[in-house]
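Journal club prep — side note

Before the paper discussion, L.F. wants everyone to see what a predicted structure for a comparable chain looks like in token form. Sequence:
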Amino acid sequence: MIVPGIGGSDGTHWQTLWQQQWGADAVRIDPGSWSQPNLDDWVAAVDRAARLISPRVEGIALVGHSLGCWAVAEWLLRSPVDVPVAVFLVAPPDPTGDVFPAEDASTFVALQARRLPVPSMVVASTDDPYCGLRVAEQLAAAWGSDLLQVDRAGHLNSASGLGTWPTGREALERLECRVLGV
């Protein structure tokens, strides 16, 4: 399941490229509040996508980017999970940071990272303008997630020039194998 950040992921974003590669096995959330995110709307969009995809797959991999990481975490904490789930959280923003879009995403500002009920991994860049590495380490610890540090890749978005991002795919596949016990 693809869970982009504000505005969705454009055509050159690794999330979009992965979704294209996965074909019918992939689904992308579709909240009504892309540009002015509302947490409840985004969590409901994750829930709708999970209900759509869960009958078709053995386990769900939630692939969040940026603000989508917070939507995934909140959905997991609010919803019972009855299928194997792997959670891949890439470039979560610091909601207390100076560059966080607090005005547009006001319902996300007060969120606190709490231990997730499923295996997860946080991927953080050493120079992400939306989240310093120290904060990313704290988020990973609070969520109970493994941490993968990427050297100087910005916000790990289209501007980072990652293309299909093979390193990310390999990390996700390792996480999925651990969850599914294969």
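L.F.'s comment for the group: The chain has a mean pLDDT of 94. Keep this in mind when we get to the figures.
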